[in-house]
Design brief:
By secondary structure, the chain is α+β, with helices and mostly antiparallel strands. The protein has a single domain, classed as Pnp Oxidase, Chain A, CATH 2.30.110. It contains 4 helices and 14 strands. It starts with 8 loop residues before the first strand and ends in a 12-residue tail after the last strand.
Length: 200
Amino acid sequence: MTDIASSYRRGVPLPQAYRLLNHGPTVLVSAAHGGRRNVMAAAWAMPLDFDPPKVTVVIDKNTFTRTLIEASGSFALSVPCRVLADATYAAGSLSGAERSDKFADCGLAHFTAQRIEAPLIEGCVAWLECRVIAGPHEHHHQQAYDLFVAEVLAAQADERVFADGRWRADSPPELRTLHHQGGGAFFVAGETVQAKKPAA
């Protein structure tokens, strides 16, 4: 399957990668290891640092995606948009442990990442390739709080939505990012309000 939006994908400089998550979107977390792959939705993901860029994401111990992340040491975050609302909800509701292809079951296509084994999700508007930071403190957070800290190795975005280091105010409504409220209800990113610069 060819992603017709692939011509709009552009690399994002790593020092700007944090901006892809700075507004709190729902993400699709994908991972792969040993010939198996999986995808899940997560509402708790955020940037943590600028340069090198780091992110955090909460991934429950009971998920198959987490098993693959712990085995591979990497994962991808793809930022879905309005047209993927149904598929995103399915990815957050269905287990991949007993499925031969959860991607297909959720109606999600994927493409090859640049730096990691995990696939990236087609039809999204931003993508981050992440390597788990492994240290005693990070391991404690994973076990105690299901919180993973990772360095971003590569980032891309759809230029119709994100360009020159910023989310575009004129992006098409169907490409606005999803923000989960619970029970399959999402709101989408809306109007941009530019504040005035304060007087010196």
